[in-house]
Amino acid sequence: MFWEPELTPPDLDPQRQFTRANHLAFDIAPELFEQAVAVLRSHQVQIEGEPVTRPTGRGIYFYDPDGFLIEIRCDPS
Predict the structure, then answer these.
(1) Model confidence, pTM
(2) Which structural domain, as residue segments, surrounds residue 33?
(3) CA-based Rg of the chain, rounded to a whole angstrom?
C-alpha cells in the first residue's frame, strides 16, 4: 500500500517500530464507528489506547497479526 525502501519486519515491541507513521487506514461512516469498535473488542483485538477524537474525526489504532499498525477512522459527525 505504501513504498518503504529496505523495509524490515516490525520490532517485537510495537511501540518502537516505524509503523507509527506508516500505517493503513480505513475510512468508515461516522454512524458505524462505535459498531466497528464493538466488533473489534468482541474479537479480543487489543486497541491501542482509547478511541481518539480530533477536529478531523475519530479514530482507533490496533496492530494486525504481523505487527503492522491499522487505523479505522471516520470524519466528524
Answers:
(1) 0.72
(2) 14-74
(3) 13
